[in-house]
Each structure stands twice: as C-alpha cells, then as structure tokens.
Amino acid sequence: MKESQNTVESMRQWVVEHKLRTVGCLWLSGIAGSIAYNWSRPNMKSSVKIIHARNLFVTHISNLRSMVTIYFCL
Questions:
Q1: How far apart are alpha carbons 59 and 33 in whole angstroms?
Q2: SS3 state at 43
Q3: 41 within 8 A of 49, measured Cβ to Cβ
Q4: Which of 32, 38, 41, 60 could form a disulfide with 53 if both were Cys (CB 3.0 to 4.6 A apart)?
C-alpha cells in the first residue's frame, strides 16, 4: 500500500511541476480520440465530424476538470 501511495504522490508531483504539458497532452489526446471516434461514423460530412468531435471533447474535458478539481482540492 505504501508503494502505491508513493506512485500516486510522484505522479501528482509531476503534474504539479508540469501543468502546461499535462493540460496540453490531455487536450491533444482528447481531440485526437474524439476525431478518431467521429471519423469512424459513416455518412457525415467532414465539417460535421469535426464539429461533433469538438463538442464531444468539450463535454468530456468538463467532466475531467471536475474530477481533477475534486481530487486536488479535497
């Protein structure tokens, strides 16, 4: 259990030290995942796929932001 806490604490420390990099990686992976998901759906124009990918990403990032805020504030 102690080793697990050290791992979580070291990850938390890295995130605190590299906030901009962390946010950038989360943003990039979220957008890439959303676009990949929407590109797999047939019969939609490319512009509509991009708009849907952005909307899906915004929803997921809002949920993630809430979870991170609760974790680091409590």
A1: 13
A2: coil
A3: yes
A4: 38
> What torsion, rounded to 10 degrees, do the Cα atoms 16, 23, 1, 73 define?
60
Nearest-angstrom CA–CA distance, 62 and 44: 26
- Render pLDDT for 6-55 as a digit per residue (tens, 0 to 9): 888 888 888 888 877 877 787 778 778 777 877 787 787 888 877 877 77
Q: If we measure between CA atoms, which residue out of 23, 28, 56 comes closest to residue 40?
A: 56
Structural tokens at position 10? 């070291």
In one-letter notation, the amino acid at residue 31 is I
Tokens of 45: 């124009």
Single-letter code of the amino acid located at 29: S
Round to whole Å and give the CA distance between 35 and 32: 5
Cα–Cα nearest to 53, from 22, 29, 28, 32 = 32
Tokens 């676009």 sit at which residue? 35
